[in-house]
Amino acid sequence: MFSVYLGEPQRPLVPGNTTETEGAKAIGALWSSLVTFDERTRTVTYDGAAKSVTSEDNVRWTITLKPGWTFHDGTPVTAQSYVKAWNYTALSTNAQGASYFFSNIEGYDALQGDGDAAPAATEMTGLRALDPVTIEVTLAEPFAIYPLTLGYSAFDPLPEAFYTDPVAFGKKPIGNGPFRAETEWVRGRGMTLSRYDDYAGEDKAKARGVVLRVYTELSTAYTDVLAGNLDVLRGLPPDAYASAPDIFGDRYLQQPSPDITSLGFPLYDQRYADVRVRRALSMAIDREAITNAIFLGTRVPADSFAPPTVLGYRADACGTWCEYRPEEAKALLTEAGFDTTAPVDIWFNAGAGHDGWMTAVGNMFRKIGLSYRLRGNLQFNEFLSKRDAREMTGPFRLGWVMDYPSIENFLAPQYATAALAPAGSNTTFYSNAAFDAALAAGDRAPSIEAASTAYERAEDILVDDLPAAPLFSGVDQTVWTKRVSQIRYNILGEVVLQDVVVDGTAM
């Protein structure tokens, strides 16, 4: 058995309600997705629970499951396991954070309540289990990249045990993945997983189990790895960036991360409602200086709303607004009549190494005549909840890790009107009909390649409106103890836990 670092998840561990990175790591160990991806070409592969995903018109899709899969309680995984879970997630009264991902299925709107009015239906008309291994999905509009989206955990199945007691299930989930929950989730501590010996997938766990250990401070986790008290740590504290490669040698791994970090703007706050203010704050930030001086080259300055690792990325898509132009920033603030006497609140979560670069951002604001106040005292789950509740009083850290390898995943879930928080992940509360229409045009493209080109128009609109300022994409860094080996990343930039070998041998 080995141990890995984890931050505190925002919500109980249910696939349809887990839309942030820390909970997603646990979900990824407990469940296996329908489809997987080729790490080089970013195309769909079928090493997960699905045998195939096909369509003749990009509207009606047939998902064929591999037979013989079971949940950790021994009950069979069937087409109905998916259909019932997706309807549950989509139903607005269940308040699931990933509900938005089902919004393109025919009949989704009927599951959304209007004010005090209850939803008109509890099941989507476009979703059927034709037999135990066949799911038929009818979309409201063509969606060329639909097979890509099925690699996201929101599409994972749920066993009947979930519906008996969802609260208990969220503490000790029952999935279909390579590991099963051995203990309940305990806030501030984590949980222990054991290998699921009846797992039907090809990627069986090599170790007999893994401890998901929660830390509130990344620096504490790093100290524990050095001492041999934690086996695997993905992500390093800033003061370890330079020394870790030498200290750990061949037990250090890095590669470009499929993520983007931005500075989100609370568009509901009139102080940031003027696009000239948002452009000014973006141009006040010297991205290259931060990535070099603070991150020592372990980040790459952003020039797009998506990282270079996804289909549809365009170099320099952000243009002028992502360039360091402090004098133009000053002029824009004056033109917008921005109140420079009140400090700019800068929000981020505590304990994850954000203090240094957020302080650098604040000092760059100071160079254009602003004062700032750091708001970095909230733990990750508290910060996310406050962000969802429209309680940010200034720019805030906005991070997104790829769910599936398309630029659409960096545009729609974060900025589409249908994805407004708390039901979705649009926490800037940006809404633009033209942007939504451009996304829809990409969805209707005849192929994944054509869709990627069409989404460029949506990104152009986003650049013009700038609800967030793209800052940098990451370089994943992981270190581990001598007890473990075979550490590698998947396409999402996460350590593949089922591949980890303890003490040189599979157990």
Can you put this structure into words, describing what you see?
- It is a single chain.
- The protein has helices spanning 21-30, 79-90, 146-149, 160-164, 166-171, 218-227, 244-248, 275-283, 287-293, 326-336, 355-366, 380-388, 408-415, 433-443, 448-465; strands at 2-6, 36-37, 44-45, 50-55, 60-65, 127-131, 134-138, 179-181, 190-195, 209-214, 232-234, 252-256, 259-264, 299-301, 344-349, 372-378, 396-401, 468-480, 484-485, 501-502.
- With 507 residues, the protein is an alpha+beta fold.
- The strands form six sheets. Strands 11, 12, 13, 14, 17 and 18 form a six-stranded antiparallel β-sheet that branches. Strands 1-10-9-8 form a four-stranded mixed β-sheet, covered by helices on one side.
- Helices cover 27% and strands 20% of the residues.
- Among the domains are: 32-159, Dipeptide-binding Protein, Domain 1 (Dipeptide-binding Protein, domain 1, Alpha-Beta Complex); 259-474, Dipeptide-binding Protein, domain 3 (Roll), CATH 3.10.105.10.
- The protein has 15 helices and 20 strands.
- It starts with a strand and ends in a 5-residue tail after the last strand.
